[in-house]
Structures are given as C-alpha cells and as structure tokens.
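Task card 7
Instruction: Convert sequence to structure tokens.
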Amino acid sequence: MRRIFPLYAIMSSLVSSLFMLPAYSQLADSPWPMFRHDAQHVGRSSYAGPSIPVLSWSYKAIYIWYFSSPALGSDGGVYVGCGDLNLYSFTSTGSLAWSYYGSTWESSPALGSDGGVYFGSYDNRLYAITSTGSLAWSYVTGSYVMSSPALGSDGGVYVGSLDNRLYALTPGGSLAWSHLTGSWVYSSPALGSDGGVYVGSWDNRLYALTSGGSLTWSYTTGRGIMYSSPTLGSDGGVYVGSSDNRLYTINSSGSLAWSYVTGGDVDSSPALGINRRVYVGSDDNHLYSFTSSGSLWWSYETGYEVLSSPALGSDRGVYVGSRDGCLYSFNSGGSLAWSYVTGYRIFASPALGSDGSVYVGSNDNRFYCIKQAPIPTGTPTPVKEQINYQSAGAAIPSGYLVDDGAPYGEWGDYGWR
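Output:
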C-alpha cells in the first residue's frame, strides 16, 4: 500500500532541514568585532576614546584576564576570554549576559554578522558559539589554539594552532584546508582584500598564502614570530614584529621594505594610522611610532614591557596597556594624554567603543570599561583686578595673595583681589 504524505508536512520538513544548515556569516558590522579591529589587523577605530578617563564599570573574575582582547558587538555587548577558562559576554552596562566554559584565556573572540562568537581554546578546539551562549560547533586541531580567529568575506574562519598548522574552516566548521609550517602558529592570521592569508610562525617565517592555502611567499626573520600578528597596509605592505627585537615591513612581493631594531622582543601587533604611521610596543618598555618609510617618529617609555597592541582612535589618539599595570593614552605627537592605573599587569590589547569608552582586561582579575569623564561646563570665573604695588610705591596690604611666579611661600610684587 502506498503511503501518501501531505504537502505541508513535506514542506515543513524541508524548511526545518534548511534552518539546520550552517549560517553564512561574515565579520560583524560593529565598533570592534575582532582582535585588532578588522581582518587586516589595522587596529584603527572609527570612534575616539575618552579624553578624560573615569571608570564606567569593571567585572572581577576569579583569575586573571590574560592575553584575550575584547570584541564589541553592535548592541553594545562585550565578549572576552578569561584565565578562569570562560568566555564572557557582558551587556553594555557591565552585567553578565552569559559565560561559556571552553578553556580559553589567550585567544580573542571574533563576532559574526549572525551574532556568532568564534574563539580558540587550550583544549585544542576552535569554538563557534551562538549569540545566546550555546555551542554551534567546534573543530579539533592537534594542539592548543592560542591564535585569534579571523572571519573572511566568504564566511570562512581562519586560525592557527600549536600543532604548527594554519587552518581554514568553512562557515559550518568543516576543514577547507590547512597549511603546515615548521613550528607553532601562535600568531593570528590577517586576511587581504584579494583573499590572501598572512600569518607568522615560531619557525622564524612570515607566510603569505593564497585563498586556497597555497604558498605565495615566505620571509625569514632572525627569530620566531610568537605573539605579534601581521598587519596589512592599503599599499600591500605587511607589518609584523619578531622575537629578534625587530619590527618588519615586507613588500607585497615578499621582499624587505624596512626593519627597525628595538631593545627587546616585539610581541605587540602593529597598528596603522590614516597617515600611514606605524605604532607598536616592545619588550624594552617602549611604545614606538614610525613614519611610513621606517624612520622613528616618537617613542614613549612606560614602566615595563609593552606586549599589548595599540588601538587608534578617530582623533588619532593611541591607547595601549603595559606590564606596569597602566592603560595609556597618547596624543598623535607622542605626548601623554592620560594613564589609568589598574591593580596589576596588562598584557591584553584595548578596544574602542562607539560611545567613546575603552575596554581592556588586567591581571588584577578585573575587566575594565573606561569612559569619558564629564567635562566641566566652564562656569565664568570672576575677573580679578591686578595691582602692581611696587610700581605704585605702596606697601602690600596684609592678607593679600601675591604671585610673581615664585614658589608658594615667597613674596612677590603683585597683589590679587
């Protein structure tokens, strides 16, 4: 006997199957959707940070906020990994939305246009989490995934692993391809507009790969590329730091454009300004700024190593953390605008929000949101009459405040009333 299925039942089953298919997701259109802001790792925001800092909120965890740097959603949500092995999701006001226990504390999350959150983990996996904190899928590599994922325009997910491979995964979490290097891939991949993929390895090489995973070129540095991740310029240049104390700029063909020797490992990832200035930290305690040709523009010495990667505001302000426990803000010319003291070292890199806030984690177990302090309204100050008693040949009356620029406690020639 033939069984007849109603048309509505067939259509319902088909629709359900379609919705179970992996969603196509590009990088979210948000203020700071991934490590270094965008797939090219430029580290430059469309928004300015605070000119006068004040604490908006902080969240205290049971362990340190290590290298994981925050991603900011279009709804004001904040996503970041912690040393207590959780990925945290906060509301814009600092309330905990949800957390996912996934053994992460170094990989920085990336946000998809569908609300998905992608991050690497110490349990050898790359995770894709839904916007509500549920597991969508995970992919198992051969070792720790300390690299931060990048999302391609085709929905692909790219990430490195300490099994020496760079992985390219489909939007649904299947392997598209992998490329074997000679050592750990701790560095986070950057994606070119042509689909090219760029990543450093501890085998002393910077790799340029095609969108299909074939080698385009590689450049040998003097020592391994560990924490620093490549940044791509609009001219095709590739900027990356190395443990040989150098910042490198490589041409699009794979040849050296220039390099600069600092006094320590360059674990920080470079940021590129709109004027093609290059900003990067060094383990010699300095934040550096270079011209596009590699000349030193300015440097600033902090109290300890600068492993944090700088974030650039639309007002050309520069924001970076230091192992001295401070979050620093600099003007474009290199002068200190302000510093905010946390309780311990800062390894993580800051992110800038659309409301002018800056977000960063510290090893004092706290994650911070620093906002713009209220600016005084400028109440008019009464005009004081200045009298030159010396010129008038008169004695200075008792009780008058006198000032000639001399230190307090010394008498001068002018009185104020």
